[in-house]
């Protein structure tokens, strides 16, 4: 050891030699570590070295310092390994700046067993506002490590571990007490993805069924995350195409955009010979080259992911100038215990993971290990919100996100959502506060419209935007799926608002006189739920198309009203409120059910108006009764609710 130190000028190499001696003679070191007399002699032995090192901290090891190191190892009655441990701690303390520079010169650095590896520098106690639930690991350093260096163990043979300093300065400041991490969740169900018709078949490529709509949704969600203050944004697995992932780089160029954007992952064919891959891409502000990660643990259930991982999988650790060790993982990569152990040993302390999993609960133990062993911060973005299985009528709703934080009681927190609509989850680093925010109403409405409408839709008027937000806040949980009642039949009606010469008006149908339910009454278009309907919105739009020929892509869905019991027809009816500037009709009235169609001014829907005030589209009523009396019971109740809501939103 003395011969090695006599000629070594690199502090990193000298420190490695000392730590290797600590590893080789750990039994002797443990025997002497608790002896106060030994500790006193070690302090005295390294005092001359400390005096010289304090003047050479930013330079290679000079001859006087090297000589002092050699002399310190020759103290009588103290094992050399105990002195070596004290010298290693001294070099680590005095030359920590040089250590980072030495690793950067080796980048991309691939350590073998026994080689030094860098450890993350941030002290989590200075970043979070609460006391960590697990003691920081640096308070109990192992024998083969110091605060900034550890020797690689046998785990280095399991994966190709790479320390990458390419984004060293671009990642500086990535985590502060004020940092907010956001995960975005664009998709509702597996029906929005390209998947084989037989779920047992191998699936490749998996991706969004409608890339253009997916792009709009993702842009809206990223914008929502940025508006919420997020500087780190994580998208889910397989929610992108390669071109969409590349285009999202623009977000890190925009003023006020995120500093780091994990652009999900996508299926693609690698270079020749072609290899099926699942790759995550990340964009960093101020840097042109992306960070990437190839998934090495393919899914087998419930989706058989047909990718071909490389034989010797890579774990790439991106090091920042302030000591953060960023790792991108994809879904099941975090269920591989060897991979998680390797990440913990390599000092990974910021793990961001796109996921597409039916359940996130199995991930909690692995992530808790990363948090407790390395004080890591973890964010997992999951997608979609609903999973359906053959033979299981009830869909499964997994957690939308999973966060790991040293300040959380169990080190992890699953994030559920009140419904399956798009939204974002956020975690504030300083306070460990976690929240869920639903997507804006315009994003939700886009999922109820045809992706390619026959004619451009006019923008929503301000009152309609305000009303849609109120409906969502009050009743958003009502619109996911019609309940399966015991004695009532599920149904939905469309309450379509338009602008007329007399102001806001509603579309009503006059029912045929020979019908069993509501003969001759004025009602909304609507009817019973079909097995293929995915919720009340689908039912209402389908029934309107069948009864009055309405084109669903010419209306905006504003929201859902509470379900009501129809006392005459024994339906459980969910009203769906919608608006259109110019409703389009592609077919004629269904004369078997509808006698005529009326656009009735809401201002006339009161007891003082009679049928002479009721405008007709294709016919006039035969009766001279007041038209309020001719409304169906449920129709009248719904109109009263709509009028009450509009009084707070519509200017008229």
Q: What is the structural class?
A: alpha+beta
The CATH architecture of the largest domain can be given as: 4-Layer Sandwich
Biggest sheet descriptor: 8 strands, mixed
In whole angstroms, how far apart are the ends?
89 Å
Could you name the CATH homologous superfamily of the largest domain? Carbon-nitrogen hydrolase
Number of strands: 26
Strand % is: 15-25%
Query: Any idea of the CATH class of the largest domain?
Result: Alpha Beta
- From the 3D structure, determine the CATH topology of the largest domain: Nitrilase/N-carbamoyl-D-aminoacid amidohydrolase
What secondary-structure arrangement, pairings included, does this model have?
Elements: H1 2-7, H2 11-24, H3 26-33, H4 36-53, H5 63-72, H6 80-94, H7 96-106, E1 116-118, E2 149-151, E3 160-164, E4 180-185, H8 211-227, E5 232-234, H9 242-247, E6 260-269, E7 276-284, E8 291-294, E9 314-319, E10 325-328, H10 337-345, E11 350-354, H11 363-374, E12 377-381, E13 387-389, E14 392-396, E15 401-404, E16 412-415, E17 423-428, E18 434-438, H12 441-446, H13 462-475, E19 489-500, E20 503-511, E21 522-523, E22 526-528, H14 536-548, E23 556-560, E24 564-565, E25 571-579, E26 594-601, H15 627-630, H16 633-646
Parallel strand pairs: 3-9, 4-5, 5-6, 10-11, 11-12, 19-25
Antiparallel strand pairs: 1-2, 4-17, 6-7, 7-8, 9-10, 12-15, 13-14, 15-16, 17-18, 19-20, 19-22, 20-21, 20-26, 23-25, 24-25
Would you kindly provide a brief summary of this structure?
The chain is 27% helix and 21% strand.
